[in-house]
Amino acid sequence: MRKKVTVVGAGNVGATVAHRLADKQLADIVLIDILEGIPQGKGLDLLESGPIEGYDVKIKGTNDYKDTAGSDLVVMTAGFPRKPGMSRDDLLKANFDVVKSTIEQVAKHSPDCILIVVTNPLDAMAQTAFKVSGFPKHRVIGMAGVLDTARYRTFIAEALNVSVKDIQGLVLGGHGDTMVPVPSYTTVAGIPIAQLMPKEQLDKIIARTAKGGGEIVNLLKTGSAYYAPSAAVAEMVDAIFNDRKKVLPCAAYLEGEYGIRGLFVGVPCKLGARGIEEIIQIKLTAEEQAALEKSAAAVKELVEIIGV
Ligand code: APR
pTM for the complete prediction? Predict the structure, then answer.
């Protein structure tokens, strides 16, 4: 039987996630939103692409959580996107209310699902979903690292004029301006980046990566990124449903790993059928560890404001 995915929020990110999951035939999809007509219209439009694209997955738009019942995986995208001049953190309180109320419904109707949280500020919203759902930590995953790493890899590939597929990189920490790209684990077809690029150039790429979301917001003016975020979600869903044991940077609930306790922070995770099957601990330089702790402290500040 085909898997079932619910996408909460039928806006830019949610609808594009549904589109990518359908194209990859990963699951039947329920698209749910508070707005009436939007999820139904987008769901039907996607369903009607099936004969052309050649997929048989079912896609349904709804406003009723009963339709989401028994989902294997739920992608949380409901909330408000960033506008120019707004930091992800300005979104905190508004999106907290949205995530809290929707996760209560999700957990009630799909008590065994794996949750992938996309709503920003990401780490604090993942923590909200974890606390409100009461799910075990391996079933609550924040999507940030795959996206941030994709931006990092894009910029490096562009600078060196090599295939994006050759770039391996890690971006750790919170999904915000304090994120931590890790140069010591960045390679081009196995070659350490330091051999191919001067430090100053890499530093510029790291700075651009940390502000990668804001760069798109400033260009779009009316919202935030959705093509790359939805591609990141689709990669994570594929890793889980196909039990690929793929090592991807995700926001995970840490209980002492990297010296951090009781917080969602981006770290390398093994994703498989159970969700986060392992948090992989890598050696960091003193500078990288300090940057990770600073990033965790920024997440902690937000979490304390909303009290989760
Ligand atoms: N229940 C269900 N849906 C809701 C609720 C709610 N309580 N509140 C808002 N929504 C819906 C909105 O109606 C809208 O359709 O969430 C959707 C958000 O869509 P967009 O405004 O297009 O925002 P999007 O670009 O998709 O970003 C969503 O993902 O990347 C993050 O920072 C981004 O937090 C933001 C989220």
Answer: 0.97
Which contacts of 134-140 are long-range, i.e. CB under 8 A and separated by 24 or more positions? Answer: 134/107, 135/107, 137/252, 137/253, 137/255, 137/276, 138/274, 138/275, 138/276, 138/277, 139/113, 139/114, 139/115, 139/274, 139/275, 139/276, 140/114, 140/115, 140/253, 140/275
Sequential DSSP letters for 125-191:
HHHHHHHHH---GGGEEE--HHHHHHHHHHHHHHHHT--GGGEE--EEB-SSTT-EE-GGG-EETTE
The model's pLDDT over 265-295, given as tens digits with 9 standing for 90+, comes to 999 999 999 999 999 999 999 988 999 999 9
Residue of 16, 33, 97, 215 best suited for mutating to test ligand 1, as the one with most atoms within 8 Å of CB: 33
Does 10 sit in the ligand 1 pocket, CB within 6 Å?
yes
- The CATH number of the domain covering residues in 145-306: 3.90.110.10
What is 4-142's CATH number? 3.40.50.720
| Range list for CATH 3.40.50.720 in the chain | 4-142
Torsion sign (Cα): 259, 147, 3, 240: negative
Query: What whole-number distance in Å separates Cα of residue 183 and Cα of residue 193?
Result: 7
In the three-class reduction of DSSP (H, G, I as helix; E, B as strand; rest coil), residue 250 is classed as: strand
